[in-house]
Amino acid sequence: MEHIVIIGNGISGVTAARHIRKLSDKKITIISAETDYFFSRTALMYIYMGHMKFEHTQPYENWFWKKNRINLVKGYVHFIDHKNQTLKIENSTDISYDKLIIATGSKPNKFGWPGQDLSHVQGLYSKQDLDALEKNAPNKKICKRAVIVGGGLIGIEMAEMLRSRDIPVTFLVRESSFWNGVLPNGESQMINEHILEHHIDLRLETNLVEILSDESGKAKAVVTDKGDTIDCDVVGLTAGVSPNISFLRDSGIELGRGIKVNRMLETNIPNIYAIGDCAEQHEGIGNRRPIEAVWYTGRMMGETLAQTICGNPTEYKPGHWFNSAKFLDLEYQTYGWVFSELNKKEYEQHFHWRHASEKICVTIAFHKDTKEFLGINTFGIRMRHKIFDQWLTENRNIEYVMEYLKDANFDPEFYAQYEQEIITHFNKKFDTQISPKKKSWTRIFTTPKSRA
Asked: Per the CB 3.0–4.6 Å rule, which of 97, 227, 375, 430 could disulfide with 338?
């Protein structure tokens, strides 16, 4: 019986295993050194905040794996012998494979800062990181201040977690505005305001120089490039993540920043594949980056590769870009492409609307010549993924999107609706006379593909 071995029990590896089992009777083994069972990594913050227990983050009961004949091995793979198709497991017996899927995810970035390996300096990616934060920052008596280094999504999550226990937080962000390499100016500025309103000491255009140690080897302060020394008990390193591939350096597998794969998710070694955060396309798909450390793309790679493993060769085609996140209590969604001012394409034009008093805004990107709809960002308004996906596929123009924008609103009826105000602002800015229209739900999902 063909043996499929998967290294990593995150969303990518587990999805691949589940779909291979649905499609076949192959022998499946998952190896992971992190936890005994799969859990939802995106829910880690809610455990610390008291909203969930760890067992609530496990989508499947412990008996699920045995019932579905998926073998679980807890261990660390320290070498892949691809010539003999064997894995060397630390402090355990070797495991042979017929096909190998590498789904080892990411690890927090470290940039050689003095003191970065001290006690009480940590990232926020793994279950072990969560356990360390619980130990190092249980309350504001033990942790009188935390310093977070790096202004991305993990950083803002860690800040929210610590503030939920009233622990003072200083947030060092090297950019001139929060996440302005991704968000347009209006949105980035709004997030700056939101962070400050949550009593977080946000320091923009500030870099970490050094982490100072006390006599026991524990972090006691950070030094910034502004000359400030900030006393603290915990330092969170959240300046992004990198593929977790250090154990592959002498494996013969082609590496870049991640594991190089083609559109079939194959490496340069026969019968070895890579999916999820650790996989790097030779060239990005469309506007996508070669490495995508995103939950849903990891899931899609797992589903796609399962087809190939089970005899139906399938290219990885992720479709239109979308994502969602939360900045403290502010929900964010993006569909299609809305580039920041720092990275904006020459053909791209933005329409930005922000509510006069609430933290609610919309930015829509469109082609300045053809008026084709390119993408949308929303903060504080929930939108329907399926409708925007359809409009992007149909190459709808900006006027069409504005006319039918209300159809895309996912908020319940008792929520405030802002579409009329948005359209009025659009008409005034671009000297148009668009009025809102509403289609039936049937038409929304059955309109034939066409150009607007």
From this structure: 375
Cα dihedral 322, 327, 330, 331 in deg (nearest 10): 20
Helices (H), 114-259: 127-136, 153-163, 185-197
Residues contacting residue 210 through CB under 8 Å, at least 6 positions apart: 113, 114, 115, 222, 223
Contact 373, 411 (CB under 8 A): no
Q: How far is CA 57 from the centre of its chain?
A: 17
Per DSSP, the residues of 303-360 read HHHHHHHTT--------S-EEEEEETTEEEEEEE----TTT--TTEEEEEEE-SSSS-
Residue 22 burial class via C-beta count within 10 angstroms: exposed 0-12, middle 13-18, buried 19 and up:
exposed
Find residue 237's DSSP bridge partners: 149
Interacting residues of 221 by C-beta distance below 8 A, sequence separation 6+: 211, 212, 229, 230, 231, 232
Pairing state between β 219-224 and 229-231:
antiparallel
Site of tokens 């010549």: 369
* CB of 228 closer than 8 Å to CB of 262: no
User: For 185-233, where are the E strands, in sequence order?
Assistant: 201-204, 208-213, 219-224, 229-231
* pLDDT, tens digit (0-9, with 9 covering 90-100), for 20-46: 999 999 999 999 998 889 999 889 999
Per-residue pLDDT tens digits for 291-346: 999 999 999 999 999 999 999 999 999 999 999 999 999 999 999 999 998 888 89
3-state secondary structure of 247: helix
The whole-angstrom separation of Cα 325 and Cα 389 is 18
Q: List 9's β-bridge partners, or say none.
A: none
3-class SS of residue 4: strand
Residue 344's pLDDT is what?
86
The pair of three-digit structure tokens given for residue 74, joined into one six-digit string: 């807890």
CA–CA gap between residue 420 and residue 435 (Å, rounded): 8
**What are the backbone angles phi and psi of residue 303, rounded to the nearest 5°?**
-65, -45
The amino acid sitting at 31 is I
* pLDDT in the model for residue 412: 84
B/e letters for 138-166, b = 16+ CB within 10 Å, e = fewer, are eeeeebebbbbbbbbbbbbbbbbbbbeee
Map out the domains of the chain with their CATH numbers. 3-107+242-309 (3.50.50.60), 121-239 (3.50.50.60), 322-444 (3.30.390.30)
Distance CA 258, CA 301 (A): 15
pLDDT in tens, 272-285: 999 999 999 999 99
Rounded distance between C-alpha atoms, residue 227 and residue 35, angstroms: 41
